[in-house]
Specification:
The complex is a heterodimer of chains A (343) and B (169).
Chain A (H helix, E strand, L loop, with lengths): L2 H33 L5 H32 L5 H46 L20 E4 L6 E5 L2 H8 L2 H9 L1 H16 L5 H22 L8 H21 L2 H15 L3 H9 L1 H4 L4 H10 L3 H15 L4 H20 L1
Antiparallel strand pairs in A: 1-2
Chain B lengths: L1 H22 L9 H9 L9 H5 L9 H20 L4 H25 L10 H9 L9 E4 L24
Helix pairs in contact in B: 1-4, 1-5, 4-5
Classes of the chains: A mainly alpha (343), B mainly alpha (169).
Chain lengths: 343, 169
């Protein structure tokens, strides 16, 4: 049996196990939430166990690749190696996405069950601790002071366990994530793309920021109906804070260098070799952007014209004896480096 | 006929219990106290170690299949005289064939079950914790009124001062 056939058969087996585990887990998690709502520990234990099971499957894929398949590919072409590696990567991503999806679904299910108890608590009017007269019944997310209409005592009303957990714990976040699941999947893809760059540009960061904004805005919008008195403006502000927390530390690092890469890439894409050479000697050099880094940046951004322009610029900057051979060798080397990094 | 039916029922039960006990043996090729006791009571010799582990290769649980078969046959042998008593020759033939079929079916059932992949149930610990209902199943808002340590009067204003005696609440 060839390495490819063995690998495919193995991946099919693991894939069916992932499907089985997902079905079993979904039913199990639903049963667990039906059994217990006020104690968050059982769900947390179940989710940890589930993570471990899925990680076990990922480990199986990794072990099979390293221990069995890769040694069989010693004489395989790079394209064949890449194709098989990619098959494994697709399954790894599927395992990760399944675990994430189940976790989001289970937490949202728990949050909804908790909210039913919140509504029950809100229908039971608390009594004044001084005279026993009933106080108004409503959802009180936090402890508040209520003046008794009968004896005028200031009664402190503490929310019930379900209400305190719903508004003070992770329930709202879970409902937001479940409502914005699609946007967060897109964000995860965008995050992988952005973090894979060794030479990111300002446009890459901008694209990542847009994905963050879309995801967190959808999150705030999805959780808003669950919060009494929440307004659109409050939701927008909450989303903006989340985006800022994620993006600001990245933004503050290497902003001038990212901009230099953007400018250089723009020149390369336009085929302006002379302009690129002059840029790399001046503003680019100040930001540590040399010919080698420029080549990698162009290759990472997968634009053939940009890479060719960068190669021409590199020839002028490095002045090799045999420019033709040097360019061919450099092109292959840079493309291979970038491809390998992506693994 | 009544005696035959009750003996046959006892035989079927005994065979079922042997298979159940066998499937409780873990790891494959291992030994449990009930299994050892069953073998000793029916005079069936245990497959010695480490041969019994080699014999159980491919199984996920249970003693070696040949040991189970010997025990099943011994169980039938032990109950056969009682089973055949009072039956005509032709009935005895049918009863013997039925007992052999029973042993064959039980042995084959064991072989299938002993090779099934052991699936550990998900969330066993979490389910046990959930069943405890440590936080109760219902809750409601709680209220309290600060009272003055000096005169015992209830808090009447937002200020933390007793309106009755002027003391701090």
């Amino acid at each position: 049996m060839s390495a490819s056939a063995r690998w495919s058969a193995f991946l099919d087996k693991v894939t069916s196990r992932v499907t089985e585990l997902e079905t079993e887990a979904r039913a199990g998690l639903e049963g667990l939430v039906e059994t217990e709502v006020l104690d968050p520990v059982p769900l947390s234990q179940a989710l940890s166990e589930l993570r471990a099971r899925f990680q076990g499957l990922t480990k199986k894929v990794d072990d099979a690749w390293e221990g069995t398949i890769e040694p069989l590919l010693a004489d395989a072409t790079e394209a064949e190696w890449n194709r098989l590696w990619q098959q494994g990567e697709v399954l790894r991503r599927r395992i990760e996405a399944t675990a994430d999806r189940l976790e989001v679904e289970a937490n949202a299910l728990h949050a909804r069950a908790l909210h039913r108890l919140v509504e029950e608590e809100a229908t039971q009017p608390p009594a004044c601790a001084s005279c026993g007269a009933p106080l108004s019944s409503r959802v009180r997310p936090r402890a508040v002071n209520v003046t008794c209409a009968h004896c005028k005592s200031v009664t402190t009303v503490r929310p019930g366990v379900a209400t305190a957990m719903f508004f003070g714990g992770g329930a709202l976040h879970a409902l937001g994530l479940a409502g914005a699941a699609e946007a967060f999947r897109a964000l995860a893809t965008e995050e992988r793309r952005f973090t894979a760059f060794v030479h990111p540009t300002s446009e890459d960061l901008e694209r990542y920021r847009e994905a963050l904004t879309t995801a967190w805005t959808a999150w705030a919008k999805a959780k808003r109906p669950w919060v009494p008195g929440a307004t659109e403006a409050m939701a927008q502000q909450e989303a903006a804070v989340k985006v800022s927390q994620a993006i600001t530390p990245i933004e503050q690092r290497e902003s001038a260098r990212r901009q230099a890469r953007s400018d250089a890439l723009r020149l390369a894409r336009a085929g302006n070799v002379a302009g690129l050479v002059s840029f790399l000697r001046g503003a680019g050099a100040k930001q540590g952007l040399d010919a080698e880094a420029m080549l990698e940046c162009a290759a990472e951004h997968q634009g053939q014209p940009a890479l060719e322009a960068a190669l021409k610029a590199a020839v002028r900057l490095e002045v090799p004896d045999d420019a033709g051979a040097w360019v061919a060798e450099k092109r292959a080397e840079v493309l291979q480096t970038v491809r390998r990094r992506r693994r | 006929m009544h005696a035959f039916l009750s003996t046959w029922a006892a035989l079927v039960q005994g065979i079922g219990a042997i298979v159940d006990d066998a499937l409780e043996v873990e790891p494959a090729g291992g030994l449990t106290v009930p299994w050892r006791a069953r073998c000793e009571s029916l005079g069936v010799g245990l497959v010695p170690e480490p041969e019994r582990f080699a014999d159980a290769t491919g199984q996920t649980k249970g003693p070696p299949a040949r040991e189970v078969l010997l025990l099943l046959q011994a169980q039938v042998r032990a109950q056969l005289p009682q089973l055949l008593a009072g039956l005509s020759a032709s009935q005895q033939t049918v009863a013997r064939t039925s007992a052999e079929t029973l042993v064959r079916e039980a042995a084959s059932h064991f072989e299938v079950k002993s090779r099934e992949v052991v699936k550990r149930g998900l969330f066993k610990h979490a389910k046990a914790t959930a069943a405890l209902h440590r936080s109760g199943t219902r809750s409601r808002a709680e209220t309290y009124v600060l009272t003055c340590a000096g005169c015992g009067g209830p808090r009447q204003t937002d200020a933390l001062v007793c309106v009755f005696c002027g003391g701090a609440l």
